[in-house]
Amino acid sequence: MTFSIKVNGDTHQVDVDGDTPLLWVLRDVLGMTGTKFGCGMALCGACTVHIDGVATRSCITSVDSIGKSQVTTIEAIGATPAGARIQKAWLDREVVQCGYCQSGQIMSASALLASNPHPTDVDIDDAMSGNICRCGTYARIREAIKHAAQSNG
Amino acid sequence: MIFDRIAFRARDAHQSASASDLSRRSFLRAGAAAGGGLLLSMRLPFAGGEAEAGTSEAGTSEAGTSESFEPNAFVRIDGNGEVVLTMPYVEMGQGTYTAIPMLIAEELEVDLKQVRLEQAPPNEKLYANPLLGVQATGNSNAIRGGWKPLRLAGATARTMLVSAAAKRWKVDPASCRAQSGEVRHAPTGRSIRYGELAAEAARMSVPENVTLKRPEEFKLIGTPAKRLDTPAKVNGTAVYGIDARPPGVKIATLAQSPVFGGRVKSVDDRAAKVVKGVRQIVQLDDVVGVVADHMGAAKKGLAALKIEWDDGPHAKLKTEEIARELENATLNSGAVAQNIGDADKAMASAVTKVEATYQVPFLAHATMEPMNCTAHVRKDSCEVWVGSQALARAQAAAAKTAGLPLEKVVVHNHLLGGGFGRRLEVDGVVRAVEIAKQVDGPVKVVWTREEDIQHDMYRPYWFDRIVAGLDENGKPVAWSHRFAGSSVIARWLPPGFRNGLDPDSTEGAIDLVYDLPNFHVEYVRVEPPGIPTAFWRSVGPSHNVFVTESFIDEMAVAAKQDAVAYRRGLLDRAPRARAVLDLAAEKAGWGQPLSKGSGRGVSLQFVFGSYLAQVAHVEVSKDGDVRLRRVVCAVDCGTVVNPDTIRAQIQSGIIFGATAALYGEITLKDGRVEQSNFDTYRVLRMNEAPAIEVYIVQSSEPPGGMGETGTSAIVPAVANAIFAATGKRLRKMPVDASALKQPA
Lengths: 153, 744
Hints:
The complex is a heterodimer.
Chain A: E1 2-7, E2 10-15, H1 22-29, E3 48-51, E4 54-57, E5 70-72, H2 81-92, H3 102-115, H4 121-128, H5 138-150
Parallel strand pairs in A: 1-5
Antiparallel strand pairs in A: 1-2, 3-4, 3-5
Helix pairs in contact in A: 2-3, 2-5, 3-4
Chain B: H1 2-13, H2 24-27, E1 28-32, E2 38-42, H3 52-58, E3 73-77, E4 83-87, H4 96-108, E5 115-119, H5 124-127, H6 142-169, E6 176-179, E7 182-185, E8 190-193, H7 194-201, E9 250-256, E10 263-268, H8 270-273, E11 278-283, E12 287-292, H9 295-304, E13 306-310, H10 319-329, E14 335-340, H11 343-348, E15 352-360, E16 372-377, E17 382-386, H12 391-402, E18 409-413, H13 427-436, E19 443-446, H14 449-454, E20 462-470, E21 476-485, H15 488-492, H16 503-506, E22 519-525, H17 539-558, H18 563-568, H19 575-588, E23 598-607, E24 610-620, E25 626-636, H20 643-662, E26 668-669, E27 672-673, E28 691-696, H21 709-726, H22 737-740
Parallel strand pairs in B: 4-5, 9-19, 17-18, 21-22, 25-28
Antiparallel strand pairs in B: 1-2, 2-3, 3-4, 6-7, 7-8, 9-12, 10-13, 11-12, 14-22, 15-20, 16-17, 16-19, 20-21, 23-24, 24-25, 26-27
């Protein structure tokens, strides 16, 4: 079946089964590989995208559930004010190591900052503990979110 | 590891700041680059000359002698002034792509931004790691191997550029100075950019002697330079192996025999074939692959397959059997890995004896990027896209599997979404090529997380038996340690396993920092059936440091002494070790009171060429749950190249090791790995991560490795802290909460 989905402002027609996870539509059908596969069960957060601004695990989000919602991915998050601040903070604070999980981390952090301009440590734990990093960059992620929040004014 | 032995020899050679102790001819040549720049070709020296004994110990010496010069690293200065490095190391998050350019840029007197690093193509003969003897990035050794030769190369290029400028100006080279990518002549106020000089410099003779900077002259080394690989990693444009998309690529996923050594008995693929997007089912001896338009269809197809397996000889295997076999092996003698004095005799005279056994489990790597490899097998050629720590090995595996000569196989390496030792293995390449042989066009084989966990190659299970004898003051007079487990080296680098020993399995067990007068260590190699083993971040020390540092703690208890004071009393001959211990203890507030249920534990090690002390602070709840609150780490890793990278690697290593200590365990039941995803193979998350403080001791010694050392040190620190908090000694990892639960 053909579905029409809106990703980063562009509308795409994709011909896949309705239960196909959005993750694979993005990566394999549309060729947008910035969104990563980590677990397939919403356990690691590597596949996080925004659906109407809400951080969502694309590996368990079927393409037929999206409807007219706006999907935003790592490729376009820099165009949002919160996303741009988070990306800059990630560079300023040298968060990244292997970098594979960081697309998902940045998407979770951007959604947090957009909805909560001055998150507390508890807020950060709540928003970010679904995102696993095997390189152990957690302390820097926390610092970078605070750094981005400060640049919020 | 074996490579460290070679590293230590290299360290001895490093002491002098003058370059005159190295024959220039043996490792460095200069000439014109294609396109008119200056090209320096290097033979990183320890693979061919100085460490010949080391590589012959490893038995893989393919390196040329000083007479047959075969460069394995290149520095090119182009007409536009850009400096391009071609290096045999890969980036997997550890910051090598930033630290390596720093070494060249320091001596060459250019801005770090002018330096670009290119990764070498696979070629074992040319790009063998100076400390590994094979083309691989591992064992925390990129900086250790490159430390001197890369600075010498930078200094040589600088000297030639200065000579070229002096010749053009007809002035004494000594009156010229290199700075910020140009040569300046202060008396006349003239300057020329390197790019303009590159072609002329290529015609200058290579200087016989160059002098390296003294540490106090460093401008770049020791500064927290920004990483060069990060911008692409925050905007989704970085390309990992799993992101390869050659035109027309199909996506496949696979099911491998759930029992290692099993085979496919039968496959009913009728339901799978009708899944929309599924193109082909590939059935091989011990694996079934589903080829599809996208991973969603491939996974759906895989789920629809009905596969019957012949489980083979390991159908009933369980972890307990393996542990029992290892335990029994420690009752018999093994290969003597270290013998100092007479431990038996001294033990007989000891006033107190301390005895213990320890066990560490199999561990998966669980890199964030699941295993994957893309392959396109044509009649007479093969192309592979993969992120690998061992490129030449990947190429060889692809060639063998495809039945093609090596030169017909092209490997495109990509960024690695975590390595940790997993990507030193090429089983994923073999799988991809096997499947691609059956497929028309390129196919990307992506493992599900479940396959990734259940068909990893695991950190070995180890069983240790250890005894110490103490005198009337509690001082050790004898130490006897015997352990059994798999030798990864024996499989991965067979000539490295000799006389029943390999230097990886024993690192961290045979060369302790302490004064231990009568010291005996034996290793018994036991390969477990039905489960493959592999290197895992911090390798041999991941096991040995847990054992030795837990046991030193037990000795302190037997001696009724404080854990730090006891260690300190054994460090008269190890001032660098004592300094990091003192620093960590001081910064952690060692000895200051803690609330009930909390405790501090210490660990101290010298592995990978770096000294490290850690103090862990844990809280143990009434239910036995352990929270790691804070870790204070003091490190002396010799000369610091990039302090921010060192902090990052320590933070990273601690989280990785703490994950193993608190949760990490792979178990077998009915021959099958019981864990499958991050729900059953738990890893530390942000809300569980400790505060980590890193203190770096200033040093002008040659740099030590930093990629793994944080991992091995944290495990005993946690176990010792739990003992301090609860009085319960955990001799088996991971932490068992039920053993710590307080009675109601």
